[in-house]
Batch of 4 targets.
Target 1
Amino acid sequence: MKTKKIFLSEKEMPTQWYNIQADMPGEMLPPLHPATKQPLGPDDLAPLFPMELIKQEVSKERYIDIPEEVQDIYKIWRPSPLVRAYNFEKLLDAPVKIYYKNESVSPAGSHKPNTAVPQAYYNYKEGVKKLTTETGAGQWGSALSFAAEYFGIELQVFMVKVSFLQKPYRQFMMNTWGAKVVPSPSTLTESGRKILDEDPDSPGSLGIAISEAVEMAAKDENTKYSLGSVLNHVLMHQTIIGEEALRQFEKTDDYPDIVIGCFGGGSNFAGISFPFLRKKITENKNTRVIAVEPESCPKLTRGKFQYDFGDTVGLTPLLAMYTLGHQFVPPKIHAGGLRYHGAGPIISELLKDKLIEASAVHQLESFDAGVKFARSEGIIPAPETTHAIAQVVREAKKAKEEGVQKTIVFNFSGHGLVDLAAYDQYLSGKLHDYSISQEEIEKSINSSKVL
Ligand SMILES: *Cc1c(COP(=O)(O)O)cnc(C)c1O
């Protein structure tokens, strides 16, 4: 009998997150204050984040306990299944075993609630009444809406305008969980008004929406801000994915040669890969770990490692990261969650130290892979997730050409049931690829230079 799904019982769910900062060989550059350009102290972040999250951000402890209240909510959908994609393997006709960790089973349909729940929890514990955040495709906004509602916290979401128009149903999900949503750039903040003055038709970007959400939180002492990716504590919360996957692989005869995740700011990629990287760093496991980004927003493959702002207007701390420049406005691809100019500082350091690899795929290649997956495995992937699947297809081809057997695991970061308009456009031939010239990229990087 073939085993399709590898489950863990609730009792087997990991009770700690993994903090890769304990094991990284490279020394991370500290975040800098946006005005003084000096290394940040914990107090500098206090207006935006609860103390517990600030502590996690800089912690070097290898494991951090998941609070019981958070574990209880995780159990609504966790542990998530690890699934062997037999039909997809058959379709690819290559010497590969393919596993995917299905994070689409969460209430919001993606991996994002893994950090939304602890973030809302720590804010609640410290008495915060209101949160602000940004969202691209709406996955993060809906995850935080669900989590904030759970702890009785009010939420204002700034949703990137192009996604607000492309994906109205995400807005309705957020409203159902009790959040307020406006398209960004908005007139609610100085940052938004400034962008609208310069370009009334601005499609928005995650960088702009972050500026708006940070500004609103900074101006009100009862309001804090929550970020869905990039930061160290966010990446750490997602490691429950890979910790579960490790335990699930123990129940098989397999161990992955290749670990793949799509890449926006780094959270789902970190989630699946960091526990496997621990084994690579501390036990010399020979695992390739690949982050997959869109060709239209190629910070890892074509960006530059330098200090840059996390937002467009320049309100956030300066982070040492691979970036396309904080003023880069990515083309309007449907994988809205990948339209971010920078990469999380931990991921950037790991890439610089060659512990991970990066690759970029075009929109049509990713949708082609997504449709193949849907037609063989049944689940329709989020446009973001299709980037990881496209890389699986590439690796399968390579394995076939080289005639070597490979075991691959990828993170199925979310389902695409709220993104069907994108599939409709793809199937009717209306989607196209966006290429960005090297000049454009260099111009953006140079004009965003901060230090
Ligand atoms: C947000 C999102 C991503 C990209 O964000 P990361 O922080 O890089 O994970 C990928 N997939 C899905 C389904 C998302 O919602």
Target 2
Amino acid sequence: MAKLAKVLASALALAGSSAATWPPNSKDCTTTASAADGFPTPNAEQLRAISERADGSLSNAPPPATLADSTLQSLQVIAFNEEFETAYFQSLLANVTLGVPGYESWKGYGKAELEKILKVIIAQEELHALNALNALNKFKKLAPLPCKYRFPVTNIHDAIAVAEAFTAVVMGTLQDVSQAAAAAGDAGIVRGVASVIGQEGEQNGFYRTLLGAVPSEKPFLTTNVGPFAFSFLNNNFIVPGSCPFDVNALGVPIFTQLSVEGGSAALNIRPEDQWLNYSADLSSVKNAAKFSNGNGEGLFITYFSGQLVPFSVPVKDFKWNGGKVTFKAFFPFDDNIMFGLSIASLTDGGNFTNPDAVPAATLAAPAIINVNDEF
Ligand SMILES: *[C@@H]1O[C@H](CO)[C@@H](O)[C@H](O)[C@H]1NC(C)=O
Ligand SMILES: *[C@@H]1O[C@H](CO)[C@@H](O)[C@H](O)[C@H]1NC(C)=O
Ligand SMILES: *[C@@H]1O[C@H](CO)[C@@H](O)[C@H](O)[C@H]1NC(C)=O
């Protein structure tokens, strides 16, 4: 999948209350390689223990006899993402267990309940990662091992808001994975990927409930593309250079970050039409130089929302500033009923017929925008 990208850049914006600065400084950097349970290379006994904690096991069906390179690339991004998720929830669990200020309890859930829920989720995410790693190892492809991570949160509210955001991004990305696998003739992985989409949806219903939003965000969840998810992870959560492999070796583009301003507001904006302020550093983006003397004509913010065909709005008040661009763009909430996740990209075209056409026209992406239907 040339398609997972930048979910997290924007997740930051989603985190509500204590506007954490981004990127976090080095003291926020955390490494996740907790070898206590053997992950990511458990022996048989350790795998059994992970499965018991996860309330279920890996599939015992034989793996497909062949997989297209594009599908194996998707599995690399899935492994990369699930290892990040495992690390994130381990960090959250540690904060809850240690009673770090800001992590004492949440909406009537005390320490014991949160610990129980997080332990199950961690083991489940480990099995999601192992499922992808096992296939990659079988086909002798680069099987990404965990990196060091940084998390843009210091309290449980923001931690849950960011988890909600990246989980929604992942569910959009897994749509892309299954679509691409089906198109490549790899129907054999689609059932398992679909089961993970539902599983992540169960998690997100809980996170959304904790945030005071209705558990189910939209009738049809927002889609995403692989390069945006991969960019999101790399630009927001991975300590640069910390991966035990070359992140560029996966062959998935890493776009420069598109940021949406407003701190907490951007993470969780009001359900109404509004203008949003965006910024990006285009100084080293190849197709961007031609916009250096202009007013942004020919540039658009393109949104993914639900299963709508991607739609684009022109950028306004465009300023180049040596490639560090700022501009505003309309967020057309009313016409498009944009509850839940929206994924924005800066593109040099509009009129896309499907999400897969967007990365080729993208200069910066993604920005993650969330609108909660609150109760
Ligand atoms: C756990 O707490 C540390 C210290 O406050 C913080 O840097 C980190 O982001 C927290 N992790 C999560 C997932 O909330
Ligand atoms: C966007 O920027 C303008 C000009 O700085 C400011 O007045 C406005 O409040 C900003 N809007 C948001 C949503 O941050
Ligand atoms: C999209 O297509 C319509 C109809 O052909 C055209 O008027 C419009 O300018 C196009 N928009 C973009 C962004 O290319």
Target 3
Amino acid sequence: MFSFRYLFILTFYYLVNNAISFRCDRRPYGSNTQASEPDGRFKLEVLGAENNAYIPEQLYVVQLRETDDESSFTSFMISAEGDVKQDPRNPRRMIPLYPGELRPQNSATAKFSDRCLYSVEHAMSSHKTSVEVYWQAPSSGNGCVTLRAMVAVNNEVWFEDGGPLTQKLCEDMRQPDDVAPQLNYKCGVCDEAKYELTFTGIWSRNTHPYLYPENDWVPKYSDLVGASHNADYILWMPGTLASDGFKDLAEHANSSSLEAEIREKIGDGVRTLIKGKGHGYRKMNIPTYSFFRADKENHLFSAAVAFHPSPDWFLGVTRFDLCSEDNTWLVERELNLYPWDAGTDSGISYESPNIQTFPQDAVARVEMSSYDRNSPFYEVDIKDMHPFGKFHIKLIRTYHRDCEEEEPTEEPPATEAPETSEESAEASEETNPEPAAPSRYQTQLDSAGDRR
Ligand SMILES: *[C@@H]1O[C@H](CO)[C@@H](O)[C@H](O)[C@H]1NC(C)=O
């Protein structure tokens, strides 16, 4: 669903490289006066942007309006200006960063400017007291963006920039919960750990009413699938292509080929396959439990749950580090989950027909604050949205291991045996369908099923 937009952005990058200087003549058409000193009669505001911070790729409404209940204006221009940074290949050259995209909200009131880059201007020079346009913030890493307005009362009296007509916003560095923290590449913990991972669904007609499927028996979650693994293994990751198995999970809520892909990597990047039962009608909010092991090498976990119906949307975390910076095992964490897009189906809403995305797009956040009314995320900010589910990760116990000790190469250490049976006993609904592989790694430690 992103390919068109990226093409668009790419085109802009080329434009930027050819038009290094941003400043352009913004005086009202036909005017031969200088701008007056801004007197506070008009104000530019990015609605919903708190603390002068923007969320990357979020769609914002930018409003230009009078502040005294009597002034009106005839023409305006709103422009976005990006930061500049030094060209790494030529330190004397500055490269402008992408300032996001300004676009008209309504073609009767605003249009793209022919004169200035990244600018919109009035469509008609009638008297108005306010106007709103869209600004889609740039992707992460583009620093700060300055939005500035020119506003004209008439051809003689006009204002430009200055305090009330300028707003500078910098990237909001706070991340949603399900974006994994920095990795601890040198995990120095010696003991092994046993964790419980619980998934609880939150998606419902009450929490997410807009476009929620009409029939209550239709919505369901796929099985919970994941792995504990080392730093090289990738189950899924924003910016990379989903595997075939992952695509099957995201599009069809079918986890079987993803499980096979994970199982193949056991002992080769993966420690434990995480597996929990998915719930549907009347059980949507019942937690699913699963257990897994982590160790010095395999101290990350990744997991995903698809929800149906949806184009290719799923919930999950990836490469979440359980080994804390002080080299102890994380004790407990709750993580709110928001939808991700697997990049394989271009549908816009839960019940859109299948539209294969070709070529396949990278995994990315589902487009939030969409300006398409057919999207469940129409003008919804991720910060105002209810999570669709949550993970609860909890350390159950640790197993003493000596750091110096040679890694055992054949049989699992005797101490692990009782754990295995304890875990099997915990399994209730789903019996372990996997033939035990003769490996020191347990192929499946989960005890999927309900515990009420
Ligand atoms: C899930 O996918 C596998 C193969 O990819 C297929 O054999 C199986 O029938 C599918 N399960 C369901 C419930 O559709």
Target 4
Amino acid sequence: MKNIFIESSERSLSRSLIMKTDSIIQNLIRENIKNIQPYSSARDEFTETNSKLVFLDANENPFENGVNRYPDPQQKRIKEKLSEIKNIAVENILLGNGSDEVLDLIFRAFCEPNKDNIIILPPTYGMYKVLANINAVAIKEVELTTNFQPKTQTILLAANKQSKILFLCSPNNPTGNSFSRVQVEKILRQFRGIVVIDEAYIDFSEEESWLSRLEEFPNLIITQTMSKAYGMAGIRLGVCFASKEIINVLNSIKPPYNVNELTQQKAIECLENVDEIYKQAKIIVSDRKALKIELSTLNLVEEVYSSDANFLLVKVNNANKIYKELIEEGIVVRNRTNQPLCENCLRFTIGNTYGNEELIMALKYLDK
Ligand SMILES: *Cc1c(COP(=O)(O)O)cnc(C)c1O
């Protein structure tokens, strides 16, 4: 008797937790998006994998050339591969035309134009601001500390009812560091909107991804990309991990064929050989460590910040001057001197052996 009682009360407890989770998200979704009827595409109902069927439903050209059919709108094969690799259910994954599209979908699902706001933590990835401006969403900026960590209390105080999304980029671009797990967890527990953790650089990091904690936080969205460690910036494939509720909403507003057939094929090829990617990431990380040591010996270098990404943020004595001189030497880097907390900072992407050696040689020459 006792056991049955405990079991049933636990069951109803967990049911009420699920309902609570659902309603937290429901309350954040824009009113017009809640009941939207998504475009129903021909390929939603029948897919090409069932090749015995004759497809006369989508007005495609029947002459086969490899791409004459519309691509799978749900990118099932890529998601199954990712599900295996990342140890997360297919229904918790959404794919986009780069993470930039994923981020835009998140804005459109949760932010009412001319009413809601987002919170960003400069210096950080420039697209959050651009997307907010495109979507007519106000921006609250809370600068990082001088150690490039989030000011948790200030962020929570800055938030109001209209603060729908908070962007945490970790490892952060352009600073390269990861955010303190304690601070991120505090934010996840106390911020009442959606928290997006942008993990574009996670494969270069010694810190663990937040993916394994996804179930604990109904308001968490994690974005990753195939543009950096996976070496596929050209195919435009961004990945979003979140609760089923959030994924369903994003799915209902995404363009039906947002990931094209060539991208899908290339991505699957890449994910079938993911060990190669891990090897490359390891080489890039060890080259980053070597480059950091070399840069630190130069007089023109004032500080090389520690990095969990595939780039180094470097404070020099005169960023504008060195930036121009490097271009004259045929080397293009990113000048971040106008970003908050980044005065006189340049950002160096870790290249191949040749590129890294060229950079060091050029800087040694300028150091004289
Ligand atoms: C490079 C980068 C991305 C990747 O964007 P894609 O559209 O997937 O190429 C996302 N977030 C950050 C912080 C980045 O630096």
